């Protein structure tokens, strides 16, 4: 998964804050106020073409119809994809070495165990 631009991340963050709510261009423009209103539809289309967003429905808005979208990639999935294997290993090593509490390590062990079980089922 490629790294996203600042604009793409800003738009995706609107979807990530509302993971089950279908949003259309105007919703994003109202939430991402720093972006130009002409930029938002172009970036949304690009994100949809690349699979970061998925079209969910077409609904009537006023006198016209609008395409609604949902995030197809969660924030956690995106962040995880940005770490190389070596980077993930370094991150875990740093986490473990830095005064990690027993409860935090148990939580991490549980997450790792679940992932191993999931991979074994595939």
UniProtKB/TrEMBL annotation:
Gene3D superfamilies documented for this protein: Winged helix-like DNA-binding domain superfamily/Winged helix DNA-binding domain (1.10.10.10)
InterPro entries: BlaI_family, WH-like_DNA-bd_sf, WH_DNA-bd_sf
SUPFAM superfamilies registered for this protein in UniProt: Winged helix' DNA-binding domain
Gene Ontology process terms (BP): negative regulation of DNA-templated transcription
Coiled coil: 95-122
GO molecular function: DNA binding
Keywords from the named record: Coiled coil, DNA-binding, Transcription, Transcription regulation
Family: Belongs to the BlaI transcriptional regulatory family.
Name of this protein: Penicillinase repressor
